[in-house]
Amino acid sequence: xxxxxxxxxxxxxxxxxxxxxxxxxxxxxxxxxxxxxxxxxxxxxxxxxxxxxxxxxxxxxxxxxxxxxxxxxxxxxxxxxxxxxxxxxxxxxxxxxxxxxxxxxxxxxxxxxxxxxxxxxxxxxxxxxxxxxxxxxxxxxxxxxxxxxxxxxxxxxxxxxxxxxxxxxxxxxxxxxxxxxxxxxxxxxxxxxxxxxxxxxxxxxxxxxxxxxxxxxxxxxxxxxxxxxxxxxxxxxxxxxxxxxxxxxxxxxxxxxxxxxxxxxxxxx
Length: 269
Description:
Blueprint: E1 9-18, E2 21-31, E3 36-40, H1 47-54, E4 62-67, E5 70-71, H2 72-75, E6 79-82, H3 96-101, H4 105-108, H5 116-128, H6 144-157, E7 162-166, H7 174-189, E8 193-197, H8 204-207, E9 210-215, E10 217-223, H9 224-227, H10 230-237, E11 241-243, E12 260-261, E13 265-267
Parallel strand pairs: 3-8, 3-9, 6-7, 7-8
Antiparallel strand pairs: 1-2, 1-4, 4-5, 9-10, 11-13, 12-13
Helix pairs in contact: 5-6
């Protein structure tokens, strides 16, 4: 396979089980370089587990992961990771600037201290996410949206080729969500690949160009226009999506607007 055609992420036969219960089963996945891809599915579908298994943070029972054609262990320096905000110990005593500079430790190693170059790069990353005025703030003093921006700045400092982000929009305000979307699209324009665990069906067509629908097994994966269909959503969400006809301007608004899925329907509990 030529370099130009090598997938940014290639997952083959990936299976993860907890206490003999499969969480992911025989998942195949290929993400071309330079795509923004959403990973979607119901609660318990294995979305976060997929990301963690790709990164070696949970043990896989079977399967292979390649990053730009080589095993993840050989390509670790090419990968950036933004975990779920709720999985981070925000009481850890460190400042915003110090936390962001940790993004350079993969390049520096733990024995070398960050210098002027790393500090300048961290300041630039914080400015990009609108957090330049908070460099000396303890991370525990930040709002949820501010914390998410700081983690994005840390990922930017890694200057990765492939980014994995687990629910980056969760619990953030509209301004932060727009800033994250702008950042994702900027990364794409630079040829980076971004894989995002996402839950809001309403924004998929606006934010992403690829999507993977997951429910323990891979349901479908590919361009949003091809994959984000009524049939695939039914398969992924187990029939819990009530499908509607696409609305025209003359149609009345849905009665539960926050749960409406553009052109597709509503998620039902």
